[in-house]
Amino acid sequence: MTHSLKGRDLISIADLSKPEIQDVLTQAAQFEQRLARGETMHLCEGRILATVFYEPSTRTRLSFESAMHRLGGRIISVAEARTSSSAAKGETIEDSARMLAAYADVIVQRHPAVGSARALADAADVPVINAGDGTGEHPTQALLDLYTIEREKGGLDGLQIAMVGDLKNGRTVHSLAKALAHWRVTLDFVSPPELAMPARLVDELQEQGVRVHQTDDMQAALAEADVAYITRIQQERFVSPDEYLRYKGVYVITAEVVRQAKPGIVVLHPLPRVDEIATDVDALPNAAYFRQARNGVYVRMALLAMVLGAV
Amino acid sequence: MTHSLKGRDLISIADLSKPEIQDVLTQAAQFEQRLARGETMHLCEGRILATVFYEPSTRTRLSFESAMHRLGGRIISVAEARTSSSAAKGETIEDSARMLAAYADVIVQRHPAVGSARALADAADVPVINAGDGTGEHPTQALLDLYTIEREKGGLDGLQIAMVGDLKNGRTVHSLAKALAHWRVTLDFVSPPELAMPARLVDELQEQGVRVHQTDDMQAALAEADVAYITRIQQERFVSPDEYLRYKGVYVITAEVVRQAKPGIVVLHPLPRVDEIATDVDALPNAAYFRQARNGVYVRMALLAMVLGAV
Amino acid sequence: MTHSLKGRDLISIADLSKPEIQDVLTQAAQFEQRLARGETMHLCEGRILATVFYEPSTRTRLSFESAMHRLGGRIISVAEARTSSSAAKGETIEDSARMLAAYADVIVQRHPAVGSARALADAADVPVINAGDGTGEHPTQALLDLYTIEREKGGLDGLQIAMVGDLKNGRTVHSLAKALAHWRVTLDFVSPPELAMPARLVDELQEQGVRVHQTDDMQAALAEADVAYITRIQQERFVSPDEYLRYKGVYVITAEVVRQAKPGIVVLHPLPRVDEIATDVDALPNAAYFRQARNGVYVRMALLAMVLGAV
Question: How close, in Å, is residue A274 to chain B by CA atoms?
């Protein structure tokens, strides 16, 4: 381990070089194995993680807290920061940062405003991990997605990965696409034209050597994809209800859709899902989204231990 | 210890055989003694309990969390699951179950819907303990009630136990009556006719050999009872306010009521109480309801340690 | 260490003698040093702190929880007691006290009603620490203020300390003034006449030998003060908006104000601040308010360890 992340913030997936990402994935795999052996770890004993959520995200919060507990560390938490914290008394995010840094050794924040994680990190003298800042970034989700793809397919180079759904507004797919650009991959962007991947990001990916296809035909894309990364389409993104209903119908993964896709295709979803993946998919070996959730703990353990200098 | 509960769910008190209940009570007594000696336990070190409450129950949540801490384990918590969790985004209880099982080694859930605990347990691959599912069951309350009666009276066989209040809607008394049916007991059901113990449950108890009396005369019942188990009567259960006021008045335990009852009678209440037990009872040796709350920690320690295979 | 605080409640700063206060400050300094050396402490292993907040105070809650974690202890928490707890079902504070004492070894409570902390302490058979009871007391804030002044100035005797802002309603300055009366200090009370320090408290301080000046001229006071303790002035305390605006303007600490004050003046604030200290002060060595927040952890560690008999 290079220890290169000690004391570092993680605000954007772009903060990490490819070797650093690889270090995180390697460390996560080691933690997964140690937990599988039933090992109780004390690497972060005496260290405190503050989880601060200005909008609810039970899944992300519990995943980080579980990770810190598995490392032997402790948690202080503001689960509903908007209403219950000093923010309601008019405190700036900079002052909150200094408070949290007085009480904790590492801070994880979810906040609805783009840029808020960077503001927190600039004011806090302990590492800050961005757990989502509005339509901005959610870098630990991208890392756990990478980890899952690598675990499911045995590697990342050479893969063809379809991203399906709302590619315009989804910070998850933006971060993941940027992360995947470090490897030799083909990305199929499957969405209604209204919800296409932003042109600037597509250009950026192509400049980095990523092969990109854009389509609104999911089944055609899945016939060639090694991985299908599914996200939710929300009605409020469409001008007309008819348009919404048209895409809502065709962008649903069912067991039948999986059977017609490339054999061995791995189906991922950042969860929670609503109805974009039918429950008849759950029992298929292709359904990796619950394993993906579990992998989030290993990846966050790796990150926490690394920024705390505990490994 | 038989270890027979390792990996098991506890949804209904009927899930446990009499020997299993006895194991839990024996284990709880052992934990009580170890804590009294000031012992710090590490039996559940490295293990994580998720407490998920879709309706508030501070008492039950804190009791479980205290139990897990006393065992050296860790907690992740969704104290206000209804508003703050993925449920608000439309996630099913089955998907929540898989998420929680990815982050924790055992799950405790309180949910307003009957059957929700079973649904959670069916989807989660870690043990689930029901901390109340609407008018359904609350099995750990029944176990701590049993433990308290046994501790206060030195045993369960041969006792006459009066249950007072709303016996129709009270899941607590339903679970406790079912649990007591494993022993040779007499049960006096004291309630207004409108709030009587369901006939089906009475039949079931009698088939198991329980002697059952039903009455609306509390003082007469308490003259013969070894234990008085008091529950709250809520106004909204009555059609007419007059009817409510009539029973509200006579089903209040005061120091005077205790003096006229059978000597040595033990007064229990699942708490919180409002005014069905007057505060002048608190100082009497008969008042066991605060000891009962304390016993909840020992019983929940026993259950957590047993389903986790830690004892 | 005299251990004299074992089992004791801390409701008012007046509960502590001068030697006891000095013990707390000495213990806090020792904990600060041990943490600075990177020591992981296990002094409160197996012990549980319950934090119960009937009104939000993220800063105070997290400070106590961080302190307990640093000691190796555990936390159970009711962060929003008003809505989520048994209080909503009509439970009295005395019954809540007995419940909490069944689950925890020490209780920290914030409650909007004066006297509520004493009521809790009277009913609970474990130590209770008052984390603010309305306009009543907030004794741990006074202790951390003392600790900070001593650390910043090297001692307390002989200091001239200006308290600025709303001195009528501020429980923080009341508790701090009472605590400082154990030492040979001069107190300058700087406020609008409407928000002056209560006459009874001023009399009491003078009887104890404190030299007191009262003024509404902040800059004149700061020219002679070793310490400036700033608090917020709230608009709703004034009858006329004009009056408010007049004082709002002159009671703002800026870098320029600090430059015109006594050299080496230490600026304190209980936080959160809104605009009574300009951010251009933050970078000055005089700005001690963020160090003050950090000191809260050491002081609360000392108190928790002492009332638990762990040191």
Answer: 6
